[in-house]
């Protein structure tokens, strides 16, 4: 990594696997080693992102796919790029891999989704967290669902976990900088430590 340019880390995976929790812990652990941290998410907190997040029951197929993609490009222009140009570390909870899993579940052609993201910025490291589907489903149910895509049964969760494994294999074959990690029953703190180690190793011990 050049001295001037930041580092872009993304986390994807099934609902309830711990992405939001681990993203926050990772940002906390990276902070002392960086010249600034931006902890963010897609769908983003912008108007477009909030619309996408609350529209999963109203919008279907291509309409939702394109809205989420519009938000992701806007987020790239307004949040990710400026932070990286300022030398900061960006930790993003969900990114394009999630769309490659969810959009085809909604009947959208995977080739169309891939082409939609042809110009999206590649992360430096894209973590895919997977875990026991029953545990993911239980955590999601305990928290309560607010999106049509969130699993309501272990079978839904299994389908989601398998979707992330399949998309990971395709992205690896395309040279996307993926790091797949099975969280098993580890604490979120332990998972964040494992990811931190991967980041340091990829950056030769420093940021
Ligand atoms: N490793 C862990 N061990 C135990 N509980 C965890 C762990 N990681 C997260 N949790 C708990 O599981 C719940 C879901 O976590 P979190 O919101 O981080 O998951 P998520 O992958 O971001 O889910 P979603 O995609 O549905 O938002 C939270 O209550 C969180 O405290
Ligand atoms: C990234 C992404 C998200 N969505 C929808 C469906 C998800 O459940 C929510 C994100 O909420 P979470 O708290 O991060 O789980 O947004 C989508 O439809 N397509 C996507 O690519």
TrEMBL record:
Phosphorylation of dTMP to form dTDP in both de novo and salvage pathways of dTTP synthesis. It holds the Pfam family Thymidylate_kin. PANTHER family: THYMIDYLATE KINASE, UMP-CMP KINASE 2, MITOCHONDRIAL. GO terms for cellular component: cytoplasm. It catalyses: dTMP + ATP = dTDP + ADP. Belongs to the thymidylate kinase family. Its EC number is 2.7.4.9. CDD domains: TMPK (cd01672). This is Thymidylate kinase. One of its GO terms (biological process) is dTDP biosynthetic process. One of its GO terms (molecular function) is ATP binding. The lineage of its organism: Bacteria, Bacillati, Actinomycetota, Actinomycetes, Pseudonocardiales. Keywords: ATP-binding, Kinase, Nucleotide biosynthesis, Nucleotide-binding, Transferase. Residues 11-148 form the Thymidylate kinase-like domain.
